[in-house]
């Protein structure tokens, strides 16, 4: 009987140790390199802003943080890699509004589902789009002047974007539709390719991420006609909002959040989420983001889900208006 009782106690101890081990592992996290997958090319706004946050996460949480760019298919390739990674806290994805609220309406088939396969960690930033024209090739100095010029232009205008179904594409399509402008969409591989085409006069217009155009606007080679945020942007206070420029109900911001594979331990998710919320309050980080044309954010995971679900009807309608469809 004594042996039986002792054996039971020993087995119970082993069971307790089994439960304690994962908790201990999570407390020691990160013990190996953490990979942040950016689903867009290096040098773009998502890549640049993610790297700023990775620097601060390394300083706050320790360990090694590695950025891995996995572009393609509107960001689906990179987030698919996140969704199919081991849910151990060592793979994080830098997802955007497209992954949460647009791509499911744009693509006929998707290998992952935003609600089923990934879990949000925290909001990371939002940035407005800005309506821009090349100063040398478009005479308009206000949004109203541009609309009149574009409507009178034989053959209409060409507007650029970093790809089919991106927020700049959908914003441009909605803008042209609502103003009766004959606009032809020209997709590029990011703003780095769109900008040279605009400077040559091949493209007359874009409503693209402010972060990608700040320096070219400051050089006066591009003229900013309006921003799509609800209020004026702090570093460009002379540029009106869309509403101030005469277009009501055109508030469109591009936002992002960190995500992890669905079954990632809640303790790790909370650890990263809380760190990001603290980082978002740092004045130095706020200034770096603002200079880059974005606003740094931090939030509980549930705020990401709430916003994604709220915006889906709007983006679904914009995809319909654009006529965009991808396989």
Radius of gyration: 23 Å
Number of strands: 10
**Count of spatially separate domains:** 2
CATH superfamily of the largest domain: Bordetella uptake gene, domain 1
CATH topology-level fold name of the largest domain: D-Maltodextrin-Binding Protein, domain 2
- Name the assembly state: single chain
- Provide the β-strand percentage band: 15-25%
What is the terminal-to-terminal distance? 68 Å
Mean pLDDT across every amino acid position: 89
Give the overall silhouette: globular
CATH architecture of the largest domain: 3-Layer(aba) Sandwich
Main sheet record = 10 strands, mixed
Report helical residue fraction.
40-55%
Which stretches are low in confidence, meaning pLDDT under 50 for 5 or more residues running? 1-21
Number of helices: 11
InterPro entries: BUG (IPR005064), Bug_dom1 (IPR042100)
Protein name: Tripartite tricarboxylate transporter substrate binding protein
Family: Belongs to the UPF0065 (bug) family.
Keywords: Signal
Notes on the protein architecture:
This is Tripartite tricarboxylate transporter substrate binding protein. It comes from Enterovirga aerilata. The chain folds into 2 domains: 12-17 and 22-126 and 255-322, Bordetella uptake gene, domain 1 (D-Maltodextrin-Binding Protein, domain 2), CATH 3.40.190; 128-227, 3-Layer(aba) Sandwich (D-Maltodextrin-Binding Protein, domain 2), CATH 3.40.190. The protein is globular, with a radius of gyration of 23 Å. It is built from 11 helices and 10 strands. The chain has 327 residues and is α/β, with parallel strands linked by helices. The model is unreliable at 1-21 (pLDDT under 50). Strands 1, 2, 3, 4, 5, 6, 7, 8, 9 and 10 form a 10-stranded mixed sheet that branches. It is 46% helix and 20% strand.
């Amino acid at each position: 009987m004594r042996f039986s009782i002792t054996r039971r106690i020993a087995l119970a101890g082993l069971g307790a140790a089994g439960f304690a081990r994962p908790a201990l592992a999570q407390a020691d996290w990160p013990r190996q390199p953490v990979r942040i997958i950016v689903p867009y090319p290096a040098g773009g706004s998502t890549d640049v802003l993610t790297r700023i946050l990775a620097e601060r996460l390394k300083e706050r949480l320790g360990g090694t943080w590695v950025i891995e760019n996995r572009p393609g298919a509107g960001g689906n390739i990179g987030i698919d890699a996140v969704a199919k990674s081991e849910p151990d806290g060592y793979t994080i994805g830098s997802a955007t509004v497209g992954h949460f609220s647009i791509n499911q309406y744009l693509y006929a088939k998707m290998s992952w589902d935003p609600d089923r396969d990934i879990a949000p960690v925290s909001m990371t930033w939002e940035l407005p789009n800005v309506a821009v024209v090349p100063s040398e090739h478009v005479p308009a100095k206000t949004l109203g002047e541009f609309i009149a010029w574009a409507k009178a232009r034989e053959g209409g205008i060409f507007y650029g974007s970093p790809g089919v179904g991106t927020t700049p594409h959908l914003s441009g399509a909605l803008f042209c539709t609502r103003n009766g402008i004959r606009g032809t969409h020209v997709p590029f591989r990011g703003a780095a390719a769109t900008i040279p085409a605009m400077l040559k006069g091949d493209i007359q217009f874009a409503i693209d991420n402010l972060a990608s155009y700040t320096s070219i606007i400051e050089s006066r080679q591009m003229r900013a006609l309006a921003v799509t945020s609800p209020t004026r942007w702090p570093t460009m206070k002379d540029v009106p909002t869309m509403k101030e420029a005469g277009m009501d109900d055109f508030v469109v911001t591009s936002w992002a959040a960190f995500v992890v594979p669905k079954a990632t331990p809640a303790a790790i998710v909370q650890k990263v989420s809380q760190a990001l919320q603290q980082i978002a309050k740092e004045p130095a980080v706020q200034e770096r983001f603002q200079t880059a044309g974005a606003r740094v954010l931090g939030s509980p995971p549930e705020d990401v889900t709430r916003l994604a679900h709220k915006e889906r009807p709007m983006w679904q309608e914009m995809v319909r208006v654009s006529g965009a469809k991808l396989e």
